[in-house]
## 1
Amino acid sequence: MILFTLGMIWLSQANTSSILFMAAGIIGIGYGATLISFQTMPIQSSPIAEEWLQYVLYAL
């Protein structure tokens, strides 16, 4: 989440295309890490018998 936030701040200050692309890469890395961690939290907190349901709900 920190990389995503820093990338958004850097994106708001971008004045050249190279900074824009670097900020986009940092945002992508931060968003990818955040998305995966948010996906694993409900799956780990659910009972084993209902784990398949969490996978299905996330896929929707």
## 2
Amino acid sequence: MRKIILLLMGSVCLFFSNCKKEKTVDDLASIKVDIGENEFGYTSTNPILIGGAKDSIGPESERIYLKELVDLDGNPIVYNRVGSCCPFATENGRYGRGLLDVYKVYVEGKKDTIELYMNMYERDTIMAPKGFKFKYEMDF
């Protein structure tokens, strides 16, 4: 299990350092680097679909994603998991159910704090939410 997590972390780090803007790669989920123009993640009805729960790496996948986010000026974010909410049906969860994880996110020195909703049970193209981008430009 530890080897799988380390391999996953290494793969995601490699992709984040070797891809280019607007390109998509397949890994844990598709990772699309996009400067945050997307409204997803800000509400429980449109969460960031990070995936990983089916492979027992859901929480780690969320943390890897969050560690790669910066604001549009390139300032790193600070995040804290608030808890879980919003039960929903999913074939990837225990007993056919899942919960969203909620994170408080802010940039040090700035007043605004936002909540991001993440779904570790479903996967989709991964993009930065509005107001954020990924640390590294991705270049194939």
